[in-house]
Amino acid sequence: MLRATFMLTPPHPVHLPQTLGQMARGHYDPLFRITRLQGHTKIWTTATADGSDVLLSFDRLPENIYNLHERLMRPIRVRLWSESAQALQTIGTSVHRWLGFEDDWSAFTEHPAFQKLPASLVVAHRENPGVRIPSTGQLTRHAITAIAEQRVTGIEAMGGLRAIIKRYGNDAPRSDDPDQPKDLKVFPDASVWASLPSWVWHTSGFDGARSRAIVEYAQRADSLEHLLRTHNVAAVARALNAVPGIGPWTIAETLQQTVGHPDAISVGDYHLAHTVGYALTGRRTNDAGMIELLRPWAGHRHRVVTLIKVARIQEPRKSARLAPQDHRFH
């Protein structure tokens, strides 16, 4: 097993759990885990690069620093493990983007429109200066995850994904750190998703529309990944839009984490328009109303939504939760 360890100094405040935690899908995500032992926080996740599996660990060495800005500017220790030297190099040269080093909020916070945000969001930014939008480059992982989350509850999406990843994902590379979670997995390769038998989709709770869309994506994954490497985000969005079963919501969710897109807004989300409307005006709205409300912050709309989530603003519940559907017995 090959290993790389290095320190990265942030160009601006970075809060590790608030930034990398945006990738997590539930407390028992087989691809992501946070360990806290004796006050020391480590973040673990996995990736694929150049056809090989990689284990990643992020933490900061303990120091008694009480100033928030100074704490969030401390160097970050990155550790990588893989059987492939090329994979270590590929992830090692891009991992600063995972940490949001290229997600500079200054153009947003220095814009006159920033002060037009509700006071609760301005305060949320001041109290959480280290939240960043991660950019992992892991297109297949985020695209398939987004498709799995289309038009279903989080319970349904996470349960179905977890079942398939645990069955078909490789075990994470083993490190020499005793804190490594024992059950971490690597997201299965696109070829695995493209060839899953129908009974696996069915017993994992996937309806036909989502399973077909995932297969359609997986069959085009190689060309889409190649297109991503050209750094033409607009071309990637157009290519995703051409995949049957993928629409604006899935594209936005994919780009938010794959390239850290600061303006990708998840139109069509079951709750988002209501939440944005409530946060900005005190009243719920629809998708068209949300787009209009966010217009003053064009170019930074996902950052506004990120602040709403950090501030934990939610419209008071007025009805029952959307009930999960069990497709296994249909």
Automatic annotation (TrEMBL):
The keyword Acyltransferase does not apply. PANTHER family: DNA GLYCOSYLASE (PTHR43003:SF6), DNA-3-METHYLADENINE GLYCOSYLASE (PTHR43003). Keywords: DNA damage, DNA repair. This is 3-methyladenine DNA glycosylase. GO terms for biological process: base-excision repair, AP site formation; DNA alkylation repair. It comes from the Bacteria. GO terms for cellular component: cytoplasm; protein-DNA complex. One of its GO terms (molecular function) is DNA-7-methylguanine glycosylase activity. The lineage of its organism: Bacteria, Bacillati, Actinomycetota, Actinomycetes, Micrococcales.
